[in-house]
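Review box. Two proteins, two foldings.
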Amino acid sequence: MKKLTIVCLDADTLGDINLSVFNKFGEFKSYATTKPDERMERLMGADVVITNKVIIDKDVMDRCELKLICISATGMNNVDLEYAKLKNIAVKNVAGYSTNSVVQQTFASLLALLNQIKFYDNYVQSGEWVKSDIFTNLDAPISELAGKKFGIIGLGEIGQKVASVASAFGAKVCYFSTSGANNNAFYERLELDELLKQCDIVSIHAPLNEKTKNLIGERELNLMKNGAILMNFGRGGIVDEGALAKAVDERGLRACLDVLEAEPMLAGHPLLSVKNKNSLIITPHIAWASSEARATLIAKIVQNIENFIKENDGN
């Protein structure tokens, strides 16, 4: 196969990872970000596009001559897959590269909440501990993960590893299968309403699809125990964020979120105005992005391109 022209449309979403490895395939161009009206010009003459969030739709595929679409993520909702198949354009995503990173961030956020890390760090950094008459401070109660009922929504690869870690902490793990097809012998399977009613902690690790969109709304949040913790490390759009903000302030619900329906977060978002700020941890979609995970991601994109070349050798 001839040398390829490869274009990366949103390199900023990959951070400080070195992309020079793609030069070995031919000509490589990289753009920090790409607006919708810049896609056509930048992809003219390109054989391969690397995209994380930039949409590759029918219009792009009709006006450009792409042979391969490399998605620098697991989710594929930014590409019109049916039309790509019709146009005989190969589409490759990357799965499994960020499992350890997401699991680690899940528990980093959860433990920060359970152990009131924000409160106690602020207490010390503000100089209040210096003024104390005793060696400790118990103003914000902390609690253990051991013995808690830990519900997982979406028991895929990440969900299973979260279950394993939660079990190691001594939590009692159960799960709800969003597809309805998962029957795991190691953990108790519950229907969604029962899981929400019973669990002290509920952790979402599901994709966004027709079965999970708006899965957790006001009704579902009201089923949860007062003071329970809801975590979303799956996709925005699964949880009604306005209803969650209300539940945090009115029912003492606590939450750890790494994904929102609109990203970046919108100005005036109800979660920015909650009164119980120590009950809420929000990170900007970083769970996937350890340095190790991003290095693995690039290596797997390279492998996808190499496999494509082998499959089309002689064409």
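Next protein.
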Amino acid sequence: MVFPVYLGVGAFKLHPHFVFEVVAYGVAMGLLRRNVSRDAIPLSQRSSVVIGGLIGALVGAKILVLLQHGDLLWSDWRSWLLLGLQGKTVVGALLGGLIGVELTKKWIGLTRSTGDAFVFPLLVGTALGRVGCFLTGLSDRTYGTVTDLPWGIDFGDGLPRHPTQLYEVGFLMVLGLILARYRQRDLPNGRLFQLYLVGYLGFRFAVDFLKPDFQPLLGLSFIQLACLLGIAYGLRQLLRREVTVS
């Protein structure tokens, strides 16, 4: 397989990252629209929450991707700036979106949890996006470290690497099945999102040890540090709800 794997017929070909990113956004927004049409939050408030989340996600994705690749600032600052314009990270988008939603809720006076409606759109959208990352190859910078395992993938530099993008797709499928079963129970409002948050960030913290990232603090990357903060927040919310329910 030659990366990037362009998609199309004949001379008409599109970059895989663009194709899967567009599909991911479209499917995720369609699922979110269906979910919010069923909840008890007024449309005006829900629209404000969605917009606040999208703005927060954009800001968070850009800030964290720049921190993640801070090693390029002094050695190749042009690439660093280009990465800031074009790059983004799912963890930064997730945590930035969470902050944006919470700030918006305080602004409009909404106290009800709103996260459950986002869970499956996020799961499906992220999985689709990771397929595009895999097909893009080295330029996406989401590949893993060198491995001698039989499923190592040569993304174009002659070295077999962990296909961490596919690991994430597989994990998201399993997490989705687990959360789908939980959704059938009578869970407190917001519990599904907190389970998703802790589960996904826990996976990202672990799998990022298989990535050749800039790790400035205690052998951890900025994405891993952000994951730890998000996990702490999610566990705090889960434990607080357990105490409230009991």
